[in-house]
Amino acid sequence: MIHGEIHQNVRQYINGRWETSATTGVSANPSDTSEVVAEYARADRRQAEAAIRAATEAFPHWSHSTPQRRADVLDRIGAELIARKDELGLLLAREEGKTLPEAVAETARAGQVFKFFAGEALRGGAGAGGGENLASVRAGVQVDVTREPVGVVGLITPWNAPFVIPAWKIAPALAHGNSVVFKPAELVPACGGALAEIISRAGLPAGAFNLVMGSGREVGQALVDSALVDALSFTGSTANGERVLQAAATRRAKVQLETGGKNALVVLADADLDRAVDCAVQGAYFSAGQRCTASSRLIVEAAVHDAFVAKLRQRLKTLKIGHALERGIDIGPVANEERLAMNLAWVEIAREEGAEHVWGGEALERSTPGHYMSPALFLAKPSHRIAREEIFGPLASVLRADDYDEALALCNDTPFGLCAGICTNSLKHAMHFRRHAVVGMTMVNLPTAGVDFHVPFGGRKGSGYGPREQGRHAAEFYTTVKTGYMLA
Ligand code: TXE
Asked: What is the CATH number of the domain that holds 86?
């Protein structure tokens, strides 16, 4: 049995040591706000800069470690996350509010990500354009293309997937020989601390991995501003992503953004409607709609529009909303009071702008005080704000399309471009959609939420910036290419 500990008082992890801070914060359980999940140290700019210095000092040694050593470290972390998925999943469900099965699955997925990148440490970015030897166009000259680590990377992550999003940043960063300063979202300090505690025991040299918890404005900004941070990978809202990009670009730091989404699920007249309703419920409402890949726009061909809406409404009535740890619950609470207020405000906006209410959208009382609401469904017009702006909660809009061409046009009519799905039995429309949807990821007869961990993840337009994350493509961001010439 692997023994780790979940700190009730989460501290900073800087240069191989756990440190407290001048101020602390607490995280509460969104299923039962009377329960404190953890107390955590809130770093200030000074501690953030100390972590950056530690990562800078550790980089030369760690970047020249053997691929085997890096692979062993990552494999250990992955193995422990998988072995402890139930215990860590329970912590995740308590701190963020997704249901226990979703939380356990996310934790196991984080372990799989670390194990995948243990292999990537050995492949050294090959397959992403590294590790090539070519004959030169000049006689007697050898040319080789290699990939080297970027340096010190600042990793800034959101609250909605507090194990797997940090995993798919930290694992490739370490696999490719970079040193890391990790700043999780303030809403989920216990998860960030538990992940850091596992990493702290995996055999890394001091300073190769650092955890600093604190506000985006202070600690996040310190990472963005520091000339010692060579690269920044940010996942979060589009607005904050823009701030990070602007600030980092002025000092020519490498930047990767994964930001918001307003993803469409197209349902054609020839679709299996039960399957389409399943895709819509999973994609739009599971994890309380708090996923960037959520399908918040359901674009339905006129011939099946009313039948689809009726079936979906019927399914929404059966969904169970309750305490994230309760067996048989489909949807837990939303993450905090602010998110609940924002979601309920969106319900009001929908009514005021003339969208037709189909189901849900009200706050719910449960046996424990929490941020519960029923899943909301509206019939909207493409011009409505609820059909254009990211809500990041359990609210979806149905848009009517006369035919496939109009459905595709509506799907692409958005400033975002993360993912898009289509439910159809027409190979012709499925193939055309895969090629013409202006997004980073397409799904056919599958929910838009739910991706594999060994292939590229990410979007276009307002949903992303820079190289894709995950899979072999992660080498694009976490390494830099070097071409060597030698006269033999
Ligand atoms: O984001 P925030 P949240 C998006 C999703 C939603 C948001 C939810 O669309 O909009 O993330 O996460 C730090 N300088 N995605 O509310 O508030 C902050 O402390 C530096 C998309 O957490 O932007 C936190 O650690 N850092 C994604 C992180 O940024 C700053 C998948 C995100 O905070 C900062 C999941 C600043 N000025 C969620 N301001 C995708 N597309 O893959 C804040 N932070």
From this structure: 3.40.605.10
pLDDT at 1: 42
Cα of 484 vs centre of ligand 1, distance in Å, is 39
Probe ligand 1: pick from 159, 243, 250, 296, max atoms within 8 Å of CB?
159
Report pLDDT for 132: 85
Q: Which domain holds residue 363?
A: 264-452
Per-residue pLDDT band for 3 (boundaries 50, 70, 90) equals: low
Residue 391 Cβ inside 6 Å of ligand 1? The answer reads: no
Q: Which residues are catalytic?
A: 258, 292
Of all atoms in ligand 1, which is nearest to the CA of residue 185? 25
Which of 240, 346, 414, 441 best tests ligand 1's pocket when mutated (most atoms within 8 Å of CB)? 240
- pLDDT 10s digits, 277-289: 999 999 999 999 9
Is the residue at 457 inside a domain?
no
Q: What is the 3-state secondary structure of the chain?
A: CCCCCCCCEECEEECCEEECCCEEEEEEECCEEEEEEEEEEECCHHHHHHHHHHHHHHHHHHHCCCHHHHHHHHHHHHHHHHHCHHHHHHHHHHHHCCCHHHHHHHHHHHHHHHHHHHHHHHHCCECCCECEEEECCCCCEEEEEEEEECCEEEEECCCCCCCHHHHHHHHHHHHCCCEEEEECCCCCHHHHHHHHHHHHCCCCCCCCEEECCCCHHHHHHHHHHCCCCCEEEEECCHHHHHHHHHHHHHCCCEEEEECCCCEEEEECCCCCHHHHHHHHHHHHHHHHHCCCCCEEEEEEEHHHHHHHHHHHHHHHHHCCECCCCCCCCCECCCCCHHHHHHHHHHHHHHHHCCCEEEECCCEECCCCCCCEECCEEEECCCCCHHHCCCCCCCEEEEEEECCHHHHHHHHHCCCEECEEEEECCCHHHHHHHHHHCCCCEEEECCCCCCCCCCCCECCEECCEECCCECCCCHHHHHEEEEEEEEEC
Which atom of ligand 1 is least distant from the CA of 183?
25
Residue range 216-248, pLDDT digits in tens: 999 999 999 999 999 999 999 999 999 999 999
**Is 130 a member of any domain?**
yes
From the CA of 62, how far away is ligand 1's center (Å)?
Answer: 29
> What is the number of the ligand 1 atom nearest to the C-alpha of 457?
42
Q: Whose CA is nearest to atom 13 of ligand 1?
A: 216
Residue nearest to atom 15 of ligand 1 (CA): 236
Render pLDDT for 72-126 as a digit per residue (tens, 0 to 9): 999 999 999 999 999 999 999 999 999 999 999 999 999 999 999 999 999 987 7
Shared domain check, 434 and 389: yes
Residue 320 belongs to domain with CATH number: 3.40.309.10
Q: Is 465 in the pocket of ligand 1 (CB under 6 A)?
A: no
Clarify whether residues 415 and 483 are in a common domain: no
Residue 389 included in any domain: yes
Quick one: what percent of the chain has pLDDT higher than 70? 98
Q: Is the residue at 47 inside a domain? A: yes
- Ligand 1 site, residue 392, Cβ cutoff 6 A: yes
